[in-house]
Write a structure and sequence with these properties.
By secondary structure, the chain is mainly α.
Length: about 60
């Protein structure tokens, strides 16, 4: 939940970029035959956290 809370502090453009990156990542996971919803959610949150660290998406 903390990852979602941090999204609130992003500018609109940063939110759009983060959503696109995570969406693309999730679709790639699905294309790679990952269909378990819980695993997809965790992987998506992990990807968002990685983006935060590498791109400085949040404060």
């Amino acid at each position: 939940m903390a990852v979602f809370e941090q999204m609130k502090s992003l500018r609109h453009q940063e939110q759009v970029q983060a959503r696109k990156a995570v969406t693309d990542f999730i679709y790639a996971q699905i294309a790679g035959c990952e269909l378990d919803e819980k695993r997809l959610v965790v992987a998506g949150l992990r990807r968002l956290k990685d983006l935060e660290r590498t791109c400085g998406l949040t404060q």
